Structure formats: structure tokens, C-alpha cells
């Protein structure tokens, strides 16, 4: 039974508990950091290696986390689900934005250039009333935000 | 999280009543419990896969033959996997499937009055200034504090909440995600912080109250833990205990730390048995 002033056999020495929530994690390893040898030391090194986002096992972990949450998204609260959706949409938008910027840089295409026949097709189909809207709205939107075809009207 | 649970569900009085989870969800409690078990099993399987991968990739087969190293690696991998979105999902799932208990516990901690004296906690551990004064006044004539008169409502006169440091320490449990970190925090709080609070309280009476008398036995610890859980006023402690129990390794389950976790769980169960008027 716990004797308040005695340290149990095989337990950690009586150090004051960590007051910082962030620092208290993995306390088994962290607390004995100074005296780490053998396998605990190896785990400590491993932990540092796995903190790198490019580590293959870290990539595996991240992929699993993403896949697990995605496949079990029906178990999330509605609010959490919305947050996940927003997060996914934001990530996708950022990714497409990056791709667009890359293609823009490679093609050296002018932002306010002449409207070609193919781009004009987007205009009369309901997205934009006229080429002026298209020119000022869609072109700006597609280049700046990476969302081609989304009306800004 | 509990607030999210409040918003995220319509009520579980009727078992067939569906929960407002995702837009496509229409789960009742039974299905929810099945999903919870499935998710936990999947995460455990993945932990096993990662553990085996680490062993193979780093060639540590010899090292993990030791049971202690196996335990260390297992806890290490669990802490790696059970974080971020997975932790949040599982936490929410357990909170939803235990919604009845959480709601009941919330009502109890808000409405019930729990007193250390009523919990049969020894007067030494009630943090009563009156009792302390009685001990000090009887120092010349009687050095046995147990013979001192124990006033009624012993800790009512305390300026601060008894065991406020332990309560603050346990409050941080919600910020821990790793099961081993959670159980360690419970251990630290109920073993060291609690003891240091008792020691600090009786510091100036050391001559008259021996260390042996200040040692907290299991009966007193259970009573104090019930009081602490009540004073913490945080029903999500139940979810923390459950998620920790689910992911503990075999070795950790047999350790002293689990005893403290069980003390905490028993305290919650004790409180859940209290009948209180919902609308006092």
C-alpha cells in the first residue's frame, strides 16, 4: 500500500511532478533522461528520429492517422466532422494553389491577357454574365487563389 | 470534449435513440459500443504492426527479448500512435458511449455534498485547522493526536480547498494523451503531491505527529480520492480513466501505478452510486 513517504520498489524516484502539461508526456523516458542507458536510451534516440516528418515510419503513422479518421469519420461529432471537412478542403485548395502557381511560373502566362475562345466559354454559361466579370473575377481568382471556375460575383 | 458530447448527442435515455454523429450516422448505443470496440482493436493492431516494424527495421530482436524492454517499446509505440486525431476520435467515442454515466457524474459533482469527515477519512487527513489547533494545544499533555477532540465540520473553516494542489495536478490529466503519461500523472498526484500536501499541512507539528502517523493507508486514500474526484468537478475524468485502461500494456497493468488508477476509478464508481436530486 502506498506509504506517503516511501518510494515503492522499482518505481521512479520522488521527483516533483511536472507542472507543464506539454512536458509531462512520455514522462517515463523524460524523467530518467539523465540516467538513460541501453534500451531506454535507444528509444529516446528513436523518438527524436521519429519526430522528423520525413522518417518512413512517421510517414506511415501519419498516413494511418489520416486514413483511420477518414474511414471512421461517421463516428465524429457533427462539429468535428465539419472541421475535418474544412481541413481537407483547405489542404486540397492549398495543394491546387501550389500546383497552379508552379504552372503559372513555368508558362509565364499574363494575368490580364486577351480572353481566348476556350476561356470565354465559362462566361455565358451562368458563372459570369460577361467577359468583364470573367476577366476581373475568375482570372484573378484562379491565379491568386487557385480555384479555377469559381465565380466571385 | 464533454461540451462537445453535450452538443453532439440528443440523449441516451432511449437506447434506440440515434446520436448526432456524422451526417451519415444513425447509430444507437449498442452499435456505438461495437464501433468503439472495433476502433480500439484496430488501433491496437496498428500499434502491434508499428512495434514489429520498428523491431525489424532497427534490428532490435535481441533487445526486446527482455520483458521490460518489450513493455517499454509497447508503451512507446502506443504513445506514438494514440495522439492527435486518433486520440480525439477515440476520446469522443468513449465519451458518447458513456454519456449516461458522464451526465450522472456531472450532476453528482455539482449537486452532491461530499465531506472528508463523512467519508470516514482520518482526522489527520482532513486538513482541518481546528483539529491542528487541537493537536497543538494538547502537545504538552498528550502527544497522541488521535485523542484530541475532533470538532464537527472539521474542514469547513479551511481558507483553501483541502488537497487543492492534488486537485490541480489531476486536472492536468485531460491534457495528456499517452496512456502511460496519464497513469504516471495519476500516480504522481495521488502518491507524491497528496503526501506533500499532508506533510506541508503538518509541517510545524512534526514533533507531535510522526511520519508513521502521516502515512496514508488505502482506506484513507480511497476516501480522499473520492473527495478529490468530487472537488475536481470534471466528469471527463471517467473517460480519461477508461481510455487509459484500454491501452495499458500487461506489465503496466500489474504495476503499482494501476492501483492508483483503480483507486480513481473506484472513486468515480462510488460517486455514481450517490443518489442526488437533479433539481435541488
Global outline of chain A = flat
How would you spell out the order of helices and strands of chain A? HHHHHHH
- Broad CATH class of the largest domain in chain B: Mainly Alpha
Protein structure class of chain B: mainly alpha
Radius of gyration of chain B in whole Å, from Cα? 22 Å
SS summary, helix count of chain A: 7
Spans of chain A of at least 5 consecutive residues whose pLDDT stays below 50 are 1-26, 109-153
Structure explained in plain terms:
- The complex is a heterodimer of chains A (153) and B (280).
- By secondary structure, chain A is mainly alpha-helical.
- Chain A has 7 helices and no strands.
- Chain A is flat.
- The N and C termini of chain A lie far apart (72 Å).
- The model of chain A is unreliable at 1-26 and 109-153 (pLDDT under 50).
- Chain B is built from 13 helices and no strands.
- Chain B is flat.
- The chains are: A mainly alpha (153), B mainly alpha (280).
- At the A-B interface, α1, α2, α3 and α4 of A face α1, α2, α3, α4 and α8 of B.
